[in-house]
Automatic annotation (TrEMBL):
GO terms for molecular function: potassium ion transmembrane transporter activity. NCBIfam families: PRK09496.1-1, PRK09496.1-2, PRK09496.1-4, PRK09496.3-2. The keyword Repeat applies. It comes from Mannheimia succiniciproducens (strain KCTC 0769BP / MBEL55E). This is Trk system potassium uptake protein TrkA. Residues 143-227, 368-453 form the RCK C-terminal domain.
Length: 458
């Protein structure tokens, strides 16, 4: 696939790194020549220096015969104009743009179509991160939660802790504890090494477990791996930007929410917009403020400013003063591995949320959802099966008969609204929604080909 990526910031660079190893023809466009040259030295891709919305630059980047254009510059307006140019001048088939401004997003149905601004798919990092945080609040103790198949199937990442009934026992014991619940443990990460789960595998405290199950069974399975946290009811949020305000708005009906904002005018505006949230003008690194607002009673402290270091430091302080859990927004990928799982419980990455949404539109075949895992090394995707026994490599075949690369696991199937865990004897049928886990995303091209009917091979 020939892909043009506009913007070599963190999202554009991470996307290029994800796709360049998958036999794609990638061209990266940015104004910063030194940044482009550095990326070209590291990866097998083309670079073009110049304005992303310039017809000349787009032509030089190969827009006339590109399959996909992804506009992820720091400017919404440049992204919109670039998509307009690609549509009008070059008839680019698929155009994706990152749009951050909430005013544009409120009017998206009127603005973003071929008669106005021709964008096929809109990516909003703020909305994606807000949704991810809400999922983590809904499932206390999870490190990552992703929903598939109209939310009927879920993938959950969590740590095993002492106190979990299954810790210290073989995976096969889970069936004895939960005889009426089906599940699939697809990955165990132990001391940064992947272990292929088998029935005889002993779960140890500290293991990072990834499992797939029907969404209704998530909490029952989690309770076997760690002592299940009580529902989060008392929330403190730092930062009143789009994400902080969005999280507060969604939580304030069911939780006691406090929000700290450093800017006085913004704090006043938020106090008027948020009907059931206590908004404070202040600094989250102010110990006296945290003591006054009873930080020791807070279930989750969520730091969501645009400053990574400030988020980390305020979360560390909050935990030291008694907050039960700390969640932080982190822009720099290098920081995530350093902090998550230590004093700070969860790090949320806008880049990873955005990459997941972008990959959904990049993957070949009828792919409904993609989730990037382990900071881009692993992946889970939902594929709709098409074809019949004559044209498909999977239809009419048992899971055990499929030639899957090492590290690829079929987790679950949605068939006529029924969730089926993909055990060896399960036969794949047309129109099944199959959730697939890949411990190494380098195998993605093989999976794409496996699930495409022969008539539609690319």
């Amino acid at each position: 696939m020939k892909i043009i990526i506009l913007g070599a910031g963190q999202v554009g660079t991470t996307l290029a790194e994800n796709l360049v190893s998958e036999d794609n023809d990638i061209t990266l466009v940015d104004n910063e020549l030194l940044r482009l040259e550095d990326l070209q030295d590291k990866h097998d891709l083309r670079v073009v220096a110049g304005s992303a919305s310039s017809p000349r630059v787009l032509r030089e980047a190969g827009a006339p015969d590109a399959d996909l254009l992804v506009a992820v510059t720091s400017s919404d307006e440049v992204n919109m104009v670039a998509c307009q140019m690609a549509y009008t001048l070059f008839h680019t088939p698929t155009k994706i743009a990152r749009i951050r401004n909430s005013e544009y997003l409120r009017e998206k149905d009127k603005l973003f179509h071929n008669d106005m601004i021709p964008i096929d798919h809109i990516i909003s990092p703020e909305n994606l991160v807000t949704e991810e945080i809400i999922r983590l609040i809904d499932y206390p103790g999870a490190l990552q939660v992703a929903h598939f198949a109209d939310r009927r199937i879920s993938l959950v990442v969590l740590k095993a802790y002492y106190g979990g009934p299954l810790v210290g026992y073989a995976i096969s014991m889970l069936k004895e504890h939960l005889p009426y619940i089906d599940y699939r443990i697809v990955s165990i990460l132990r001391h940064d090494k992947l272990i292929r789960p088998q029935g005889s595998t002993i779960i140890e405290a500290g293991d990072e477990i990834t499992f797939i199950s029907a969404t209704v069974h998530i909490k029952a399975i989690m309770a076997e791996i760690q002592r299940l946290d009580k529902p989060y009811k008392r929330i403190m949020i730092v930062g009143g930007g789009n994400i902080g305000a969005g999280v507060a708005k969604q939580l304030e009906a069911g939780c006691s929410v406090k929000l700290i904002e450093r800017n006085a005018e913004k704090a006043k505006s938020l106090a008027e917009k948020l009907s059931n949230t206590l908004v404070f003008h202040g600094d989250a690194s102010d110990q006296s403020l945290l003591f006054e607002e009873h930080i020791e009673n807070i279930d989750v402290f969520i730091s969501l400013t645009s400053d990574d270091e400030a988020n980390i430091m305020s979360a560390l302080l909050a935990k030291r003063l008694g907050a039960k859990k700390a969640m932080v927004l982190i822009q720099r990928m290098a920081y995530i591995n350093l902090i998550q799982g230590g004093t700070i419980d969860i790090a949320v990455s806008p880049q990873q949320a955005t990459i997941s949404a972008l990959l959904t539109h990049v993957r070949k075949g009828d792919v409904k959802n993609v989730v990037s895992l382990r900071h881009g090394l692993a992946e889970a995707l939902e594929v709709v099966v098409h074809g019949d026994a004559a044209t498909s490599n999977v239809v009419g075949r048992k899971v055990s008969e499929l030639k899957l690369p090492q590290g690829v696991i079929l987790g679950a199937v949605l068939r006529n609204e029924e969730v089926i865990i993909a055990k060896k004897q399960v036969v794949i049928e047309e129109n099944d929604h199959v959730v697939i886990y890949l411990s190494d995303k380098k195998n993605i091209s093989e999976i794409e080909k496996l699930f495409q009917p022969s008539a539609f091979f690319i």
